Amino acid sequence: MNPRTRPFTSLGERLRAARHQSFVGRSAELALFRTSLRHAADSFAVQFVTGPGGVGKSALLRRFADEAAAAGWIVVEIGEHRPPPSPEAFEADAIRMFTDEPAVLFVDDFETYRPLEGWLRDRFLPRLPAGSFVILAGRRPPGALWLSDPGWEDVLQVITLGDLPRDDAVALLTARGVPAVRHPAVLSFAGGHPLALSLAASAVGGMTGGEEAQWTPPHDVIGALLTRLVGQVPSPLHRQALEVSAHVRTTTEGLLRAVLPEADAGALFGWLRRLSFMTSVPSGLHPHDVVREALDADLAWRDPERYQDMHRRLIRHYVREARTCADSPSFAQLEALMYLLWHGSGLFGDQDEYDFHEDAVRAGDRRALLDIAAANTDDETAAIVDFWLERRPEAFSVYRSSDSGEPAGFVLTLRLTEPDAEENDVDPVVAEAWSYVRRVSPLREGEHLVLARFMLAREEFPSPVSDLIAARLVTMAIQAEGVAWTCMVVSDPERWERFAIFGEQDPLMVRVGDRLFALFCRNWQETRLDTWLEQLMPRRTPAAWRAPRRRAARTYAVLSRAEFDAAVRGALRSWNRPAALADNPLVPARVVAEAGGEPVDALRSVLHETVERLADDPRDVKLHRAVTMTFLQNAPTQQAAAERLGLPFSTYRRHLTRGLERVCDLLWQRELLGARGAEAS
Predict the structure, then answer these.
(1) Enclosing H/E stretch for 433
(2) Coil vs helix vs strand at 63
(3) Cα 502 from chain centroid?
(4) Which of 55, 89, 105, 384 has a CA between 20 and 30 Å from the CA of residue 476?
(5) Which residues face 358 on adjacent strands?
(6) Phi and psi for 105 in degrees, rounded to 5?
(7) Residue 526: closest CA among 598, 444, 600, 446
């Protein structure tokens, strides 16, 4: 009977009937499930259904649930995303598993519960009553701890879903009402991917005319497909929200508010949330993978300028968000930025489970860290690691297994303020970094360089540990506000070539023993993090992820402290002479160039703001009055300024001298740290 005309007792029954009628294929998986139900006591107790997004995992689980219910089993389905997931919430949802009746537990979208994976594997599942049956489904297969544990070998079965065979794909199109004449063209576009087939069926099903058999999916058809999927987009702002959601890892209401300030972010998020192809996860919303790719490719082709502008606005948002943290940015914030910059590049694995965490060096770590170094390098380099463990243990970030606590990798990040003869003798890479920095643009008073000397892990790249290491490097760049140079050492230049984006020149090759290391350096005296990140084009542009092969043009002039102080005094003396201010050396320096706008106005604004800061401290009020009267209020002579202030000339001179020193100090901090960093210091 047609599910549209058959009488039903509830909407749920009607939905199940329609889904049952349109379900095709997966006969082997259904047969295995039925056999397992019949022999639950001695069959696989846990089945893990895995496969890429849109491959039909959820549809298969719904069919499994119907089969189990029809066979008299209690069906317990956990599909609600409850951020953050917790053992207590999971236990409450699964309470019916602990009854005397046979029950089957379904956990769809297992990525949501990856933080609980160890607890589920080691504590929850072993407590289930004998004869229980569990079905998990997720994009990624179970982690290595499942597969390497002999205890799970006879209990867990992994079912990997791939594309549908051609006959099943044809059956799906037929069930969706696509005429046979259109099948070949649709199949050439969608293959056997269930979601792609369904989306194509939605688009093709509404077409008329005699050209269906020659149908191909050019970009305008992809656009029609997207329009058909979401219906009529209410406004250009809704379209932009949809495009943002396809370009980022996950979308939140706060993200929409930041990048679309003119819109009602709450209304836009609510609209996105109701779309059938959107998935809710603890960190926000994201489209199904196939839809994400179609949306992103469509915008990159249709409006490349707006695509790149959107990408840059998102970069600015994530960097600003990470910088406003009281301490260091969270890993979730860094994940969002790394996805935006390097998704699909091989630089970032975008793991769904991180059974590792960052920690400091502990007593007893030395042997494990040296073993990791020896496995990845050679004896000479391991000896250098040992030297730094003895000399600067606080500079190591160790990545530990959350289960065992054993080190799985480490990063050594050195904060260097001046060359040290012993360090340079022991470590040729550090010596080469100093040689390059001092040759190109030496450190100024109060500056330092940061050198990511070692980035080593037990597992091969990419891995969860290498993702955490990448997050550490991004943190290093984000926190470069107070850093003159960042340098990064790559132990395998060919394999890690994409990391060359962290440098501004071809790699400096340094030999240590029998191995060559690549050293990439970037000067933050002359450019801004935002400028660098915006040079990393989005992945659908030809220049995406391309490493720069020459030093970028200077953004700022770099002055010594003596030159800087002289320029500040000269600018104050030229307060009412715009031509002289325009030629002042501060104009191209960071402290003024970062302010933006017309150079003379920017210089005057920065000077005025800094002088006014003296008035904020009661101890400096008298200094503020002396500087203001002398320069900003244009007293004709210093003697006249002293008289107007009612001060003896010697006292006035002392206040003025100290006031100029304070203004120079405040501006120098702003020159080194940027406006935001100087305010926080």
Answers:
(1) helix 428-440
(2) helix
(3) 16
(4) 384
(5) 399
(6) -105, 130
(7) 444
Please, where are the H alpha helices in 248-399?
253-259, 265-274, 289-302, 304-323, 331-342, 366-376, 379-391
Q: For residue range 128-150, list pLDDT tens digits in order.
A: 988 889 999 987 778 788 888 88
**DSSP secondary structure code for residue 631 in this structure:** I
| Ramachandran quadrant class, 177 (left: phi over 0; alpha: psi -120 to 50; beta: rest) | left
Tell me the C-alpha distance between 108 and 75, whole Å: 13
- In the sheet with 103-107, reading across from the earlier edge strand, the strands are 74-78, 103-107, 133-138, 46-50, 156-160
- Tokens 């001046």: give the residue: 418
* Beta-bridge partner residues of 103: 74
- In which element (H, E) is residue 219 found? helix 219-230
Determine the Cα–Cα distance for residues 15 and 177; give it in Å rounded to an integer.
Answer: 17
Terminal CA-CA length for the chain: 74
How many Cβ atoms from other residues are within 10 Å of residue 326's Cβ?
Answer: 5
- 588: Cβ–Cβ under 8 A, 6 or more apart, which residues? 556, 557
Q: Distance between CA atoms of 538 and 244, rounded to whole angstroms?
A: 13
- How big is the chain, counted in residues? 681
Strands 485-490 and 515-523: antiparallel
Cβ atoms of 485 and 450 closer than 8 Å: yes
Express each pLDDT in 12-26 by its tens digit. 666 666 666 667 888
Contact 357, 366 (CB under 8 A): no
In angstroms, the Cα distances linking 154 to 50, 119, 150 are 18, 20, 8
CA 538 from centroid of its chain's CA atoms: 13
Q: Which helix H or strand E contains 284, and what residues bound it?
A: strand 284-287
Cβ-based neighbour number of residue 88 at 10 Å:
8
Helices 649-680 and 561-573 meet at what angle, rounded to 10? 120
Alpha-carbon span 245 to 271, nearest angstrom = 12
10-residue mean pLDDT profile of the chain (681 residues): values are 58 67 82 86 81 79 90 84 75 88 89 85 90 86 83 86 88 84 79 78 60 54 58 85 93 94 94 80 81 82 89 86 68 77 60 72 92 89 94 92 87 91 92 87 85 86 74 70 81 63 75 85 76 68 49 63 90 90 88 83 92 91 93 89 92 94 90 61 51
* 12 burial via Cβ count (<10 Å: 0-12, 13-18, 19+): exposed
- Centroid of chain to Cα 344: 12
Which token pair is 25? 């294929």
Q: With contact defined as beta carbons under 8 Å apart, do 555 and 593 qualify? A: yes
3-state class (DSSP) for residue 452: strand
The CA distance from 472 to 476, in Å, is 6
Look at the block and give the residue holding tokens 């606005």: 313
d(CA 535, CA 22): 47
Dist CA 210 CA 191 (whole Å):
23
Task: Beginning with the edge strand found earlier in the chain, give each strand of the sheet holding 356-359 in spatial order.
Answer: 356-359, 396-401, 407-416, 449-457, 485-490, 515-523, 508-512
